[in-house]
Structures are given as structure tokens and as C-alpha cells.
Amino acid sequence: MDLVDRLLNKEEAALVELMNQYGDYLLRTALLFLKDQQVAEETVQDVFITAYEKINQLTDSSKLKSWLTSILVNRCRTEMRKRSWKQRLLSLNMFDFTQQDDLFLGPEEHLFALAENQHLTKAIHALDYKYREVIVLFYYNEMKITDIAEFIQTKENTVKSRLARGRSLLKDSLMKGEDDRER
């Protein structure tokens, strides 16, 4: 019996398995959207509760990850509307848990990689939400442009133009940051 069938039968063990399988992925995505560890964790919990309650709405069990991502994107949008995120501060260590390959780095490389990651995270968070959304979905979640267009309910060309503009803004921000660090 596959995971979706077990969820349809309301097995709690299946919910635990779902959280173990997709929890880190959803949390990483939520952090990139929301910029706040605690709110991201709460949002991911809401996603799992919604998925458990509405699993019967999933029409194709092979698209479970995409379905969870669409629930997450909608929850993140709701959170963005509810709060004034410009006053939130970025937690500098929020991506520590995603550094799985740090075990193979020396101390200097680890510090350099952490600084790079923090700088990129700050630059992504500085983007307007519409650019941040497509950047995160495309690069971090490795979604196709057609899937992103479907998730955010817009045209593919709009997604392409937001990606191009977002990349340009990121490049400018990162280049400016390098100039500031060299001084």
C-alpha cells in the first residue's frame, strides 16, 4: 500500500512518514519565502494538517510533492499578506540545517560557504515577493516554468520575465555586495 493510500485510510504512521519525507524540503521553501524560522515552521505544520485532512482531493498520487508545494505556496502567500515582513530581521543561521555537505569541508571552507550562503539568502530576501517566489520555485525546488506558471496562476511568459528580472536584481545585489566587502 503506497503512502497516499495509507493517508486516505487516515493512518497516523503515514502522516509521520509524509512529514519525514517532505518536511525539510517544505521548510527550506517556506524559509525562503517567509524569512522567519518560526513562521515557516508553523506554515509547514499547517500544510501537513491540510494535506492530511484533504488528501482525498489529490487526484494523482504521483504528484504528491507538487500538491504539497502548491499548498505551501498558497499558505506562504497568506502569511505574506497578514504580516509586515519588511520589519522582520533575517536570522543569519537559518540555513545551517541545509548544509549537509559541510561535513566534508574544512573550517575555512565551511566559514566561506556559510558567508556565501548568508549573502545569497539576504539578496533573495531583498527581492520583491513576485521575483523571490519564482526564483525559489525554479532554482531551489527545481520546478519547471510550466509548473510554476500553474502554481502561481499566471502565464509562462510572465514567469520567464520574472525569472529574468529576478536574476538581474540578484546579480546587481550580489555584485554590489562584493564591492562593499572588498573595501
Question: Overview of this structure, please?
Answer:
The structure is a single chain. This protein is mainly α and 183 residues long. The protein has two domains: 1-85, RNA polymerase sigma factor, region 2, helix turn helix motif (Rna Polymerase Sigma Factor, Chain: A, Orthogonal Bundle), CATH 1.10.1740.10; 103-183, Arc Repressor Mutant, subunit A (Orthogonal Bundle), CATH 1.10.10.10. It contains eight helices and no strands. It has helices at residues 3-8, 12-34, 37-53, 64-82, 107-126, 129-140, 145-152, 156-182. The longest helix has 27 residues, at 156-182. 24% of the residues are buried.
Report, as a whole number of angstroms, the end-to-end distance.
Answer: 60 Å
Give the C-alpha Rg: 18 Å
Helix content: over 70%
Question: In terms of per-residue confidence, which ranges show pLDDT below 50 for 5 or more consecutive residues?
Answer: 84-103
Average pLDDT, rounded to a whole number, is 79
Per DSSP, what share of the residues sits in E-state strands of 2 or more residues?
under 5%
Overall number of strands: 0
Counted up, domains total: 2
Task: Tell me which CATH architecture of the largest domain applies here.
Answer: Orthogonal Bundle
Give me the CATH superfamily of the largest domain: RNA polymerase sigma factor, region 2, helix turn helix motif
Please identify the structural class as seen in this structure: mainly alpha
Shape type: globular
Task: Write down the CATH class of the largest domain.
Answer: Mainly Alpha
Strand count, sense and barrel status of the largest sheet are:
none
What letter string, H or E per element, gives the SSE order?
A: HHHHHHHH
At CATH level 3, the topology of the largest domain is Rna Polymerase Sigma Factor, Chain: A
Task: Specify the number of helices.
Answer: 8
